[in-house]
Amino acid sequence: MVDYAGAALGTAFSELFALVKDLVITIAAFRSQLEKIKSTLERIEPIIKDIDSFNDQLGRGPEEMAPIKELLDEGTGLVIKCKKIHTLNLCMKYTHSKRLTGFNAAVLEKFQLYLQLLGVKDGRGILVRVNVIEEELIELKEWLRPVLANGGAFQSELQASGELAVPAAPDFIVGSEVQASLSKLKEQLLEEGASVIVVTAPGGCGKTTMLKKLCHEVAIKGKFNNKIMFVPVSKKPNLTHIVQKIYQHNRFKVPKIKSEEGAGYCLQQLLNKIGESPMLLVLDDVWKESESIVDKFVCNDIKDYKIVVTSRYEFPQFHPVHHLNPLTHDEAVELFRRCVTVDNRGLGVPDATLLNEMVEHCKRFPLVIKVVAKSLRGKNYAFWKKKLHELSEGQSLLDLETEILDCLRKSLDDLDGDRSIKERFMDLGSFPEDCKIPATALIDIWVELYRLDFDGVRATPDLHELDYRNLADLVLPRRDSRDDGDESYRSHYVTQHDLLRELAIMECNQGEVVDRERLILDLMGNNFPNWWKEQKQQPLRARLVSISTDGKFSTLWPNLELPAAEALVLNFRTNMQTKTYALPEFIAKSNKLKVLIVTNFSFFPTELSNFQVIGSNLRRIRLERVTVPFLSMGNLHLHSLEKISFSMCDISQASTSSDAKISNAMPNLQELDIDYCNDLVILPKGICEIKPLRKLSITNCHNFSALPEQIGQSMSLEVVRLNSCTALSWLPDSIKSLHNVRLLDISECLNLNALPDQIGQMINLNRVNMRGCLKLSSLPRSIMKLRNLRKVICEKEKADLWGILKDTLPSLDVTLFEEEPSLDWLW
User: Fold this and answer.
1) Which fold has domain 162-323?
2) Where are the domains of the chain?
3) Tens digit of pLDDT for each residue in 136-164?
């Protein structure tokens, strides 16, 4: 490259170009954006050279190009900042990725404009290069349009990262055969060419665990970069939904697909579009009945495209095949010892003979070993003998999988004499296979079923207990979200191995249908169980009812007598022909119903109808991915409702007027949670008339721009959470009247440029989270009055703003937000 020493513009360009070329190789987190910038700089490098030559010939100084030099200097500063960002810092990655993209657009646009103004493009060679830049700018704007449409950039970024991104790698893997398979798989993936590789083993052998580890290998990540997709297929795959998620993951406009044939066509089109560089697709947990779905993903036209299939079955037409067998005895003993040990301390593991027998009864399967071993942590010899006796019973089993399930079931029989953990475990069966279960949904159920406190504080230890015993995985959020002070667990998710889910459902299905405490129904089309279709059933005694339907369900509900039901979970999918999902009429007669959870597992929101069946006894409602105008609820009588949650919903009439007052419909509401509802622009002022409201959470709503001035009337508010509302630029002055607020979360409000002058009147404010408030450059003097403030979360450059309180509030903890230790909460 030409040395531009002595030329101000050339020097600025040189520094930036050298830095970008270096970081494209070394920093994977921003590689795609940096490569675009590198391409742009390569295009304009000859123009910079010509400008220097042109100015020398005419005796011009560098001042005419000062605006471009300033832009290049800004770019250098931005790229240096990106170099310092940790690869797991999603929020900083998001904001700086957007900045890099914006910088690239600005360079292209400014060169186009300034070169025309300066007349530099009069030369034929330069004119050609400018035309190329114009074309590049058009392409960039076209690329940006679907990403930024409807203000949903951040939502798309999060969902794309979460849905198909590789889950976190396991802490360790035991087994020489696993290590050998891992090494061989790695070798095959690093080879060039297209292939389908099958990893087969019975459930619980560690197939998925091995693939998680493999996808995090440095060499694999180096080759496939951001083209690794981890797709859970499971027992009842929905090709349309999978294809739509792949489109979203790769930041393309998601198509509305009407049929499976259409899904196959769209998939092939996309694969050809994104397959220019090496690509790895993991199809996890493919069942024998879904063998044909693998064929849909094969595309021989792609040069370096690898598909890895994990399955309990072997598919003869695909090669090579890796058979993953159970652990050897010694390996199983090693894993058992690891899992029965707490904090690297042995807790009285009995003699080797007893340990060896226990391992053999676990069939040397990793999943069984983990569950059984964790149930024995800290137990004495007598307890071990009792457990071994239980595992030794009933050996006349039909097949290996049944034997594994039976072994797991026996590990549940005595959970420290505390049946509540087994009860919570069985509740997880209410949600579909391979589902990320929102922790707040479980807490909502448990609070009402087990008569716990309103906020669910007594429910959260049970989440950790299930995780501790390996009966489920509690996926943690970002560090700062965990430490928000109200223990809401609103960003946590729970996942469960499919064998454990089968076990939970087996336990729920014990006894006659009429006598079960939990009724879990998974309907295919309109195929209702005989006992339901015949309409002759006695009133059911179930307290928890879960009904899942697929895209072929007509929503014509037969009657169901549920006089004892306290929690109803409705899981559904719709197809393109199904415009609405009707709530079942039998809800109206379920007089004890306290919790209603409705989740649409289709890609696009579906209109929710028949809302009038909801009775006044309900205390908690959670709606996900449905269309339900919030203010239409003003016509309902939800006088017992204490909490309502909307996630990824269209609540489009939330900012319009209505004759029915929402405060009259739900006068006892204590918590309102609105998350990822992009059509929310302004919170209805009627919400402020609900006097008992204690918690208000509006998060990830990227078109939300204002709280109503009447918010000051909500005197009972204790928590105000507005994080990632990127269009929010101001807070109303009346917020000063919220004297009971103890937590204010304005994190990632990128356009918030000031706090209310009299925020100091919020006298009980205890915690403030303001990380990512990029435009917030000063604080009002009234913060001196925040005598109860104990914790502030912000970036290093914002910490000095709070220095004024150091003398008056020596106990104030200003926590610097620098990086996220985990992105597991997205998986």
Assistant:
1) Rossmann fold (3.40.50)
2) 8-151, 162-323
3) 444 444 444 444 433 333 343 344 345 78
